[in-house]
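The following block was generated as part of the benchmark described in Methods. Ligand: s-citryldethia Coenzyme A.
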Amino acid sequence: MARLELDGKTYELPVVVGSEGERAIDISSLRKDSGYITLDESYGNTGSCISNITFIDGEKGILRYRGIPIEELAEKSSFVEAAYLLIWGKLPTTEELSTFSALLTKHEMLHEDMRFHFEGFPPNAHPMAILSSMINATGCFYPQVLGDGHEQFLMQAARLISQVRTIAAFSYRKSLGLPNIYPKPTYKYTANLLHMMFSEPYQDFELLPEIVQALDLIFLLHADHEQNCSTATVRIVASSKANLFASAAAGVCALWGPLHGGANQAVLEMLEQIHQSGDNGSKFIEQAKVKNSGKRLMGFGHRVYKNYDPRARIIKKKCDQLLAALSKKDPLLDIAKRLEEAALSDSYFTERKLYPNVDFYSGIIMRAIGIPINMFTVMFAIGRMPGWIANFKEILESLDGHISRPRQIYNGPQDNHYIPIGKRK
Ligand code: SDX
């Protein structure tokens, strides 16, 4: 129990201890008992839920999906298998995996009438705007799967994981004025996305195993990450009993911001800008240290990791492997490595425990594959979809069942009155 002394009274608050020893003070009775609430803007010290899905130890740089270290999954698993693990809490048997994979194949096509929605967007519409609206629109075409039964959930989840890929590919093709390439039932998840993005009606894209594996790894590494901004958004929307498509569409919008999933696009823009300027990165680093310079070392720092993001370590290694396999060199990777080296020997960054995060190197891989920079955050959204779905399911099954509704401290004008417009100054 935690004891709180307030206005001469002592309040005993239960302490909750998680399976990894994390501790929280349960304040759910605080307002009722004391009239006080707590204040924690941007929630850096506030747990919104008890979850069994993903564990992060920010100090030690640990990330586990359902208890399995990300390093093991990165080496031995696949994105679809990790998606099953996150959503249903266990690694699938051979039969379960093939049934799940077949369901994704069955639902890979969009409803043909959704074509008209794509035509309504301007050619330069950002793919994240298209993605969030088309995910919500998808729900309109399958009213029969809306509802919170197990079967409906499975159908919604399969459609979302499968069709987020098709929507992404179609938005990419539209941005280039190219005809849509339809999915092939013989292709597995990530290969099919590459096919839909880069094949032409007259010839299929060459699916190099190294490219397919690298993008599959990117999806796996992005699949879930505790209560990050977009996942917390999905949970809040889900708590109002909105359907999974609406909750996921809200998650896409939250992910879009450059401080969150939009950082992978911002990192490449930063590296390009440094490359064009001829600066070896040292000038930029100095600017990023000046508070109101408007420059940040994008892809560095994290709300939770105060150590190297384990995903960044895995992606950095994959960058070298993929570029070697493709016999490609990328000056931006050299700049990124120089920036990392300079930052990690600069007390400004080390004192603030700012290390590379998942976004610092991921864009190099996507650029080597030929994915355009405005699609980087869409790739993040495809990867994060299983995590959003797993958290939606956890809310759906939670016994609490309350709608999420934070309180606030009001600090505005008191005792004000209406003034007729003729008398206003
Ligand atoms: C993702 O939450 C998740 O799990 C997210 C994610 C996921 O998988 O869902 O991991 C994905 O969003 C990764 C983060 C991607 N964003 C970026 O790379 C953008 C660049 N990073 C920052 O803007 C920042 O580090 C945040 C937003 C990521 C974290 O911000 P915090 O923890 O709120 O840190 P802060 O803003 O309070 O900064 C603390 C200090 C400040 O300096 P002082 O006031 O102490 O002098 O560190 C400085 C900041 O100015 N700082 C940076 C910096 N990040 C923090 N200075 C320069 N460059 C940076 N990148």
